[in-house]
Design goal:
Layout: E1 10-12, E2 17-19, E3 24-31, E4 36-42, E5 45-50, E6 55-61, E7 63-68, E8 75-78, E9 82-85, E10 90-95, E11 100-106
Antiparallel strand pairs: 1-3, 2-3, 3-4, 4-11, 5-10, 6-9, 6-11, 7-8, 7-10
Length: about 110
Amino acid sequence: MSIPSEFSHVTAVTKANVYFEGKVVSHTLRFADGSKKTLGLIYPGKFHFGTDLAERMEIVAGHCVIRLDGTEETRTVAAGASFDVPAKSGFDIEVASGICEYICSFLP
């Protein structure tokens, strides 16, 4: 799977989504077909996110360690890789150093 380097023909929401006192920041992109994605940065720290919809997290730069809710397994996800999170679930994500850049796609 190839992670996109740009998106064309989108509406970008200028107001940022800011979480954990600014340690996770994203912007929403809305597509003509009604789908949406967020583009974001995660600074060093350990965070938990809940999901309403299913999500695919694609790592653009950096790396992180993730653990899906209901599992004990952790895994490192580096630039060029992705992971899926089920709807009505959640995940822990940890960035030890640097900045992790991501694309979050909301899945049908």
